[in-house]
Amino acid sequence: MKLAIVGLPNVGKSTLFNAITKAGAEVANYPFCTIDPNVGVVSVPDNRLDFLEKLYKPKKKIPAAVEFVDIAGLVKGASKGEGLGNQFLAHIRETAAIVHVVRCFESGDITHVMGGVDPLRDIDIIDTELILADMEAVTKKLERLEKNVRLNDKKILAERELAIKVKTHLEAGNPARTLELTEDEKIILKDFFLITAKPVLYACNVSERDLPAMENQYVKTVEEKSGKEGAQAIPICAKIEAELSELPDNDRETFLKDLGLEEPGLNRLVKAGYSLLGLATFLTAGEDEVRAWTIKKGYLAPQAAGVIHTDFERGFIRAEVMNYDDLQKLGSEKAVKDAGLLRSEGKDYLVKDGDIIEFRFNVSK
Model pTM? Predict the structure, then answer.
């Protein structure tokens, strides 16, 4: 899972990225302090995996992971190359979703590139540049399709019809993700590689003064907007998250308690990213390792097996499945089995989030 962190300069993107990855990306109070994209990988918080580690005492614990790409601050004209915008836009195309960091706090110490705080204006600036970039891409695609339309190929005609529909939607100032599409059109659209078709998670960067509620009028405004377009909004204090990331594990819980917070905002951000992309986790456990595996919701058992290794899917026989809650309640794999709760599932089994699975397979030479 790869997420792009975008936003105007000086909204807290790199501070948030530092907190996520502890990578030490350069943070400064001037535009374009990030030129090349910083990339960091962070583990997905999962208490279930921690429980399995205590139970099985494996040699390794391997959590699911999220990759974050810190895209340099976009500005007006980015789609035309302003602020090296074209380079940054190319990096966004390579990701699965967008984390749009929006400044939702006032500060005399941190300059706002537009001169004042206005979340909706800031979002509109970024959206406009991404829409303009997509309009250019769709226009070029449409030109290529028009040259071949005389072939009367069904695939080409369907792509052309969709390209016209998308172009009209973009020209009206709307991101592609808000366009109502049929299931067939959604499949075709994937090959357009549009930035604005990607799902968006708004990270509302608040100040320490807004803790612990992490809510102010700016945040409410962004939440209203996200609700209308089917996106998500997560309030987060990047400065506090950065401070938390520097603390030893033992001190973090105390610091959070002092702030009146139940968990780090980053946990919520990562979980929201997982939800945004329609992902789920199944678990494997044994003496060698306990591990979380990422799948798309709706995967059947053979597809989930294929995430571990293609041979598992090709030679799939069955899946031995335990419910995590059963294992936690009964305390051991043997107890689950004795209670008749260890299930043998076939090729049509729909894998559920939190399933603990051992796959049986056989691959003939």
Answer: 0.85
